[in-house]
Specification:
With 167 residues, the protein is an alpha+beta fold. It folds into 2 domains: 69 residues; 86 residues, no CATH class. Helix content is 56%, strand content 19%. It is built from 4 helices and 4 strands. A hairpin with a 3-residue loop joins strand 3 and strand 4.
């Protein structure tokens, strides 16, 4: 089989050169479009990676904070001190020595709450109230009973009472 000698004709030579330059031009255009698309995708990927990294850092910080709060919540708050106040000490003419003795007697009555969990004391506040109100305390020749006006339960249990002299 014989290939015709088109390569010698100037019209065909221009056609082949045009096809060659067209193919090269098309190849450069495809490479340029691919490069710009790839560059845009790399920039987008980089920004998404940065956002993901920031989100992971936030998640780690929040998880650590959550763990710290859980540890803090697991450590229960306990009663450390009892603060007692008698409102009408001046009205009943109770001197400081007698007032201190009465406060010590009441604190002795409820000393078991020291070191107890605040939640447990809060649930059983009626027992605490009744243990003080239903008991009479004798100092010298007088018998005193107390009515609780205010009870605040926290690390320091604050009890505000009103004294009554019983016969």
């Amino acid at each position: 089989m014989h290939v015709p000698p088109y390569h010698r004709r100037p019209g065909w030579q221009r056609f082949f050169v045009g096809v060659l330059f067209g193919a090269l031009l098309a190849y450069w255009i495809v490479i340029f479009m691919y490069g710009t698309m790839y560059e845009r995708l790399l920039a987008e990927n980089s920004s998404i990676q940065k956002e993901l990294h920031d989100a992971q850092l936030k998640i780690e910080a929040l998880e650590k904070d959550k763990e710290d709060l859980n540890e803090k919540n697991k450590q229960s708050i306990t009663v450390e001190e009892i603060d007692l106040e008698i409102l009408n000490a001046d009205d009943l003419k109770i001197d400081k020595l007698l007032q201190n003795q009465l406060e010590e007697l009441i604190k002795e009555e409820i000393k078991e709450i020291l070191g107890s969990n605040v939640d447990t004391i809060a649930e059983n506040d009626v027992l605490l109230l009744s243990s003080i109100e239903n008991k009479t305390f004798r100092v010298d020749d007088f018998t005193y009973s107390f009515e609780i006006k205010r009870l605040i339960i926290s690390k320091t249990v604050k009890i505000v009472t009103e004294a009554k002299i019983s016969d």
